[in-house]
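Sequence and structure are no longer studied apart. As an example, we show below a sequence and the tokens encoding its fold:
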Amino acid sequence: MSEVNFNITATGKVERYQQFLEQVKPCIEGERYEVSLLANVSAALKEVFGFFWVGFYLVKDNQLILGPFQGSMACSIIRFGKGVCGTAWKENKTQVVPDVDLFPGHIACSSLSRSEIVVPLSKDGEIKAVLDIDSDKLATFDDIDRVYLEQLASLITKTIYE
């Protein structure tokens, strides 16, 4: 990913995501190294949106292993079907959680996390990684986040997993 200065001027969530995707797309498409791409995407999401924690968990040895991230220390290993990340992996479906304390089996890597969205990155139905974003506020994420983060996940998947 080449050096990018994100110039996000929109104040609405949809417009911010649209500008973000427009600006990050050329950087993603040019990168072939998984760790480099995921590290830069994590940094860009945190920089532009100010999320509490942004990162990726990679499927390795039939578990989710902590990958590139931005934020405080995190859980290193998550098992299949456990917590929000493991559930997104198991169901191959984005999980939008308005209150993590109400999510059955939530894994509290940080007590400051209040809401979360987890987006699977899959190729041909096989999960390769999940994008995990936490907020320190309740009900931060909604369908707008889901739609645009799924588009981002698709761009990443097409670049490094195909």
